[in-house]
Amino acid sequence: MPESVLVTGGSGYIAGWCIAELLHRGYDVRTTVRSPERERFVTEAVSTEVDPAGRLGFAIADLTADDGWDAAMKGVDYVLHVASPLGAASDDPQALVAPARDGTLRVLRAATAAGVRRVVMTSAANAASPSSYASEGVTDETLWTDPDDPTLIPYRRSKTLAERAAWDYMEGYDGPTELTTVLPGAVFGPVLTPDNLGSVGIIARMISGQMAGAPRIGLEVVDVRDLVDAHILAMTSSVAAGQRFLATGEFLWMTDMARILRDGLGERGRRVRTRRIPDFAVRLTARFKDPSLREITPSLGRRNRHSTEKARTLLGWQPRPAREAVLDCADSLIAHGAV
């Protein structure tokens, strides 16, 4: 009998690719969705890569509620906890933290109660970064972001506290279930559907000419297909139990990404703007015109990077070049009519 894997949040970008690759490798897959109406969306998205007939099932469960999680875990060998609930815009610093942390604990309680072999949780490289935005250099999985740093944006705090809650829970657990966490960088690569683009929307905005230029933001670009491979290696490798694995990629400034798109797409990239937007202009816009930019201003000019030596050595993980991830993402968005 094929082994079975539960993937949380099946309508998400990373989760969709996890489902497709697991099916491709012969696993039976169950995924959680918040309502039955999302089942067709997931099936159609996954079908662009692999035939899910007879091997993809669904469970109705929401990370913000207890209902449905015990049933979702029934008969499952592994769990890829990819989903994280989205918090509404709010001045409350707990708007993102509480749903992410509590949702993670719901998954772990249900998984351990069901005796699942291993849970692989998607965290973020931002949970293993120096608190100081002025920091440079290369860090690894031994570093934890300080969640009490008042300069942290809500997303970084939520990912850090959710992962910390997972490890704290497992410290008090005495049973067969194991935990591994994967900490990705900026996730790009092809899309399965033009809906729910997530981080890929940055490239869509560049191609469509919606961005007047590129702020001085640096990203460690990882292809979604390589990130999925890291998850499956973390799920199956005997040495991965109880470990954190950074799954970041090559460092690119956003101006580098713009040039890759402009040069690599030819005529299709004619609307990409390659000029750098000065830091002061980004800060002024964030202050007076577009408050949504306030969360990126602390990252202007930041060049802290992460080492993936652990994943490469222990798991044999080999990510592709960032240029390939960026261009494949662009080609996919164009092919799907997203730009």
TrEMBL record:
NAD-dependent epimerase/dehydratase domain span: 5-239
One matching Pfam family: Epimerase
UniProt KW keywords: Oxidoreductase
Region (Disordered): 130-149
InterPro entries tied to this protein: Epimerase_deHydtase (IPR001509), NAD(P)-bd_dom_sf (IPR036291), NAD(P)_dehydrat-like (IPR050425)
Sequence similarity: Belongs to the NAD(P)-dependent epimerase/dehydratase family. Dihydroflavonol-4-reductase subfamily.
Cross-referenced PANTHER family: NAD DEPENDENT EPIMERASE/DEHYDRATASE, STEROL-4-ALPHA-CARBOXYLATE 3-DEHYDROGENASE, DECARBOXYLATING
Name of the protein: NAD-dependent epimerase/dehydratase family protein
Example of a GO MF term: oxidoreductase activity, acting on the CH-OH group of donors, NAD or NADP as acceptor
